[in-house]
Amino acid sequence: MMRKSILTLAAVILTTTAAHAAEKINMDTAKRQAAICTSCHFFNEAEGTKVGPNLYGVLGRKAGTKEGFMYSDAMKAQKFKWDKKRLDKWLTNPKAMVPGTKMSYPGTDKPEIRKNIIAWVESVTTPPKKSKK
Questions:
Q1: 22, 101, 114, 133: which has the fewest C-beta neighbours closer than 10 Å?
Q2: Superfamily of domain 21-125
């Protein structure tokens, strides 16, 4: 009985570990997959806009509000803040999510690519946390 419990526990640990390993993002791959974004967007706080708005600090920002970019009326009318779930929906099909958007990217139906792009965008656009003194 004890042996069976130990084997069951070991199987659960191995399965959980394998699942977590599969979730890891290869940032080199993610950067390559996100290269399409760089043709229209800047990601550094000091840079301005291109064809699309600067994405620095995009996570947590209200949609259609980045200063210096002329958003479509459809995007300006949105009430949500960007988070990973909304970015995933956006990257699936921007025009379906916000009909009337100016975004030219058609989207991708590949969840792994969307997950990688979101991870890369988060890694380069999230402002550093301020240290408490």
A1: 133
A2: Cytochrome c-like domain (1.10.760.10)
**Which pTM value belongs to this model?**
0.78
Burial 94-126 (b: 16+ CB within 10 A, else e): beebbeebbbebebeeeeebbbbbbbbbeeebe
Q: What residue type is assigned to position 117 of the chain?
A: I
Q: Which of 127, 106, 108 is nearest to 116 (CA)?
A: 108
Q: Which of 132, 92, 97 is nearest to 109 (CA)?
A: 92
Residue-level pLDDT, tens digit, the chain, 133 residues: 555 544 444 444 444 433 334 468 999 999 999 999 999 999 999 999 999 999 999 999 999 999 999 999 999 999 999 999 999 999 999 999 999 999 999 999 999 999 999 999 999 999 888 776 6
Residue recorded with tokens 């800047």: 42
